[in-house]
């Protein structure tokens, strides 16, 4: 079984790549700017006796994504599981958000998901099976003040997931998304200690989530056990949004 995980050089994507590798998958791990971090992941996997194939592509570049998926298929054959995890955040008032910033958030969070999905779909349709797992966010469900561009892009991920689930279901492909709450990664390092503590207190389970919490949910959605689940938003958020 082959999985392609985007944005796997750190954070949630890195953990998903490692978990799938440990579970016996052939893992292709996408990255863009963080070459040294990806090199560390490849080495860590090797120490643990697994092989991870690093594949570089800027997901905002549609042609580069096509070449990346071709590279994965040349090495491993068709992709069984695609995890559209790569994403960027933007914390700004909407009136301070530049057109370029708005476009960049959508280019990576939405266009990248579209390009990767479109590139792997022919292989999945041919084999009448596949799993697509998209990373949304609690802000895509509920909207976040000062995160309008990010929230809108993550709401688009949910719309994409639900529509594609209907379109691809007859081909034996499930499409779901995970909407994490606050997870301890570099993405949240911009938040002040006070803001992070406030979010922790707002979370009914009174803690910040871990990358493992999200990776386990992704692994479940990819498994045979989740075969009758499609078009869903799995909220891995400690109850902060219900
Ligand atoms: P990080 O910021 O830690 O990592 C983001 C990853 O995305 C990196 O591996 C980065 O790779 C990759 N990436 C960014 N731009 C591109 C690009 N143009 N092409 C390819 N890869 C790119 O994020 P998290 O691990 O925290 O988040 C992962 C996903 O989960 C995101 O979609 C995020 O929106 C979502 N999420 C996270 C939450 C959290 O609290 N952390 C909460 C809700 C959702 P590189 O550096 O190599 O470019």
From TrEMBL:
GO BP term, pick one: steroid metabolic process
Gene3D superfamilies: NAD(P)-binding Rossmann-like Domain
InterPro entries, per database record: KR_dom (IPR057326), NAD(P)-bd_dom_sf (IPR036291), Sc_DH/Rdtase_CS (IPR020904), SDR (IPR050259), SDR_fam (IPR002347)
This protein's record includes keyword Lipid metabolism: yes
Matching SMART domains: PKS_KR (SM00822)
Keyword check for Cytoplasm: no
Keyword line: Lipid metabolism, Oxidoreductase, Steroid metabolism
Domain of life: Bacteria
GO terms for MF: oxidoreductase activity
One family name in Pfam for this protein: adh_short_C2
Domain Ketoreductase: 1-181
Family indicated by similarity: Belongs to the short-chain dehydrogenases/reductases (SDR) family.
Protein known as: 3-oxoacyl-ACP reductase FabG
Origin species: Massiliimalia timonensis
Taxonomic lineage: Bacteria, Bacillati, Bacillota, Clostridia, Eubacteriales
Gene: fabG
């Amino acid at each position: 079984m082959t999985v392609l995980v985007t944005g796997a050089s750190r954070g949630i994507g890195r953990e998903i790549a490692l978990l799938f590798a440990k579970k016996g998958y052939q893992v292709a791990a996408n990255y863009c700017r963080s070459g040294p971090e990806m090199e560390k992941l490849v080495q860590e996997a090797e120490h643990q006796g697994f092989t991870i194939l690093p594949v570089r592509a800027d997901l905002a570049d549609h042609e580069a994504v096509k070449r990346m998926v071709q590279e994965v298929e040349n090495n491993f054959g068709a992709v069984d599981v695609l995890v559209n995890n790569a994403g960027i955040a933007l914390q700004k008032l909407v009136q301070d958000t530049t057109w370029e910033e708005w476009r960049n958030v959508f280019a990576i969070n939405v266009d990248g998901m579209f390009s990767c999905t479109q590139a792997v779909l022919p292989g999945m349709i041919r084999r009448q099976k596949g799993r697509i797992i998209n990373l949304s966010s609690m802000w895509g469900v509920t909207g976040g003040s000062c995160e309008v561009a990010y929230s809108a892009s993550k709401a688009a991920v949910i719309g994409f997931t639900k529509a594609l689930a209907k379109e691809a279901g007859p081909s034996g492909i499930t499409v779901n998304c995970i909407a994490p709450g606050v997870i301890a990664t570099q993405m949240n390092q911009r938040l002040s200690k006070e803001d992070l503590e406030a979010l922790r207190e707002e979370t009914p389970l009174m803690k910040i989530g871990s990358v493992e919490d999200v990776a386990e949910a992704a692994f479940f959605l990819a498994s045979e056990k989740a075969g009758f689940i499609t078009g869903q938003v799995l909220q891995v958020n400690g109850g902060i949004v219900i």
